[in-house]
């Protein structure tokens, strides 16, 4: 597998420092690993994730709303898409919970094949849910600045109150790898599992996670995305495709490095710093991470609209975008990054979860199956209508 080849090359480059356990060499190795992780997320996994979503989102939008030129006429198909996407996301997550105990002792081929199917369905219906959610919001409250601002503020406030605002983050600051434990332990708000909770609690938790928490995440993204599209960045842009495409990329890269720089300081804040100060610092950093992710998606999406085989017909372009995005992340062992889920914020916030080389590299590939027998707790730039 290409992923294993890349890991072997990485080990040859980095493993030489492993036996030199002085503080300076350990610090150097850690720095190199973190830099490679961030670079891989920014330059490979992040763009591939956006590529898949662009192809899928635009294709579904074209199919569902091709003959509906105004936003006000889209409410019914948008509602159907949202309900189908939400229902299927819930069913896929419950299927993952159920299959975990069945597949845990099966061969790696069966596990890999099952994981690929489930992750693809999870990713695809996640896009369906977002297409429906975005278009429902276009119907009401619409695209006036006060409607966009109101949705953003209300959704953000509720997420902060229920301590789930960190779920608004995404690539490039967060990626997920395709280990068995990750795939078959989907996130939910209360952290329930079939192994240690009643079945109905897991079902209700999963329903709440998508119908409430994840829906609020969609509202946050829609509000901020369209505010930038129509009121914040667009009036400042020169109508040249290169300028219009690169503005969000530059903003995103700047915010990514800001979050990387302050993450450890926020994590290491102590009780004597004061609860209010800790909460304010964590909330501010979470909002920067949200803006970094949103602008990364907005910028990369725009670049792909301009430069991803622009001479190709629309449907061939979207199909290629969909296929390349999924296969690219799958080959890299990170197709789970394509899926969207929501969970409660950790008591110790960490806004960086892009470990890839540091997870597989110099320390050797971890056996993720040895302990599993033990129970444990975008519109994407829409056209004017």
Structure description:
- The chain contains 11 helices and no strands.
- The N and C termini lie far apart (46 Å).
Query: Could you say which structural class the secondary elements and strand pairing correspond to?
Result: mainly alpha
- Say how many strands there are: 0
First-last Cα distance: 46 Å
Q: Could you tell me the radius of gyration in angstroms?
A: 21 Å
> What is the N-to-C order of secondary-structure elements (H for helix, E for strand)?
HHHHHHHHHHH
Q: What's the rounded overall pLDDT mean?
A: 87
Quote the beta fraction: under 5%
Biggest sheet layout: none
Total count of helical runs of at least 4 residues: 11
Low-pLDDT parts are 362-379, 381-385
Q: What is the molecular shape?
A: globular
Percent of residues in helices comes to 55-70%
Descriptive tags:
disordered C terminus, 66% helix, 385 residues, globular, mainly alpha
Topology:
Blueprint: H1 2-14, H2 23-65, H3 75-103, H4 108-139, H5 145-161, H6 180-183, H7 199-232, H8 241-267, H9 275-307, H10 314-331, H11 357-360
In short:
The protein is an all-alpha fold and 385 residues long.
């Amino acid at each position: 597998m290409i992923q294993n080849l890349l890991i072997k090359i990485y080990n040859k480059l980095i493993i030489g420092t492993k036996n030199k356990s002085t503080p300076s060499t350990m610090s150097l190795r850690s720095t190199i690993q973190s830099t490679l992780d961030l670079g891989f997320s920014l330059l490979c996994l992040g763009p591939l994730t956006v590529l898949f979503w662009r192809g899928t989102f635009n294709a579904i939008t074209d199919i569902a709303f091709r003959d509906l030129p105004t936003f006000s006429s889209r409410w019914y198909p948008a509602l159907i898409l949202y309900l189908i996407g939400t229902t299927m996301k819930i069913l896929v997550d419950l299927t993952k919970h159920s299959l975990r105990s069945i597949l845990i002792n099966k061969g790696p081929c069966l596990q890999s094949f099952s994981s690929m199917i489930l992750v693809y369905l999870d990713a695809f219906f996640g896009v369906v849910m977002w297409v429906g959610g975005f278009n429902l919001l276009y119907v009401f409250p619409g695209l006036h600045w006060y409607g966009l601002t109101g949705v953003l503020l209300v959704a953000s406030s509720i997420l902060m109150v229920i301590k789930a605002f960190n779920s608004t983050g995404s690539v490039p600051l967060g990626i997920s790898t395709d280990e068995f434990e990750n795939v078959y332990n989907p996130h939910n708000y209360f952290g329930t599992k079939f192994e240690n909770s009643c079945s109905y609690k897991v079902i209700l938790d999963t329903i709440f996670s998508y119908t409430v928490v994840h829906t609020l995440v969609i509202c946050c993204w829609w509000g901020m995305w369209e505010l930038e599209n129509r009121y914040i960045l667009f009036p400042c842009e020169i109508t040249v495709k290169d300028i219009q495409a690169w503005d969000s990329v530059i903003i995103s890269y700047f915010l990514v490095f800001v979050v990387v720089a302050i993450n450890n300081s926020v994590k290491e804040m102590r009780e004597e710093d004061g609860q209010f100060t800790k909460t304010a610092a964590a909330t501010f950093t979470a909002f920067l991470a949200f803006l970094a992710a949103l602008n990364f998606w907005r910028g990369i999406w725009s670049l792909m609209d301009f430069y991803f085989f622009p001479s190709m017909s629309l449907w061939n372009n979207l199909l290629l975008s969909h296929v390349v995005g999924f296969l690219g992340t799958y080959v890299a062992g990170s197709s789970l990054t394509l899926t969207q889920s929501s969970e409660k914020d950790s008591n110790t916030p960490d806004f960086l979860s892009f470990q890839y080389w540091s997870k597989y590299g110099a320390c050797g590939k971890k056996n993720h199956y040895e302990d599993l027998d033990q129970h444990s707790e975008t519109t994407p730039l829409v056209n004017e209508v």
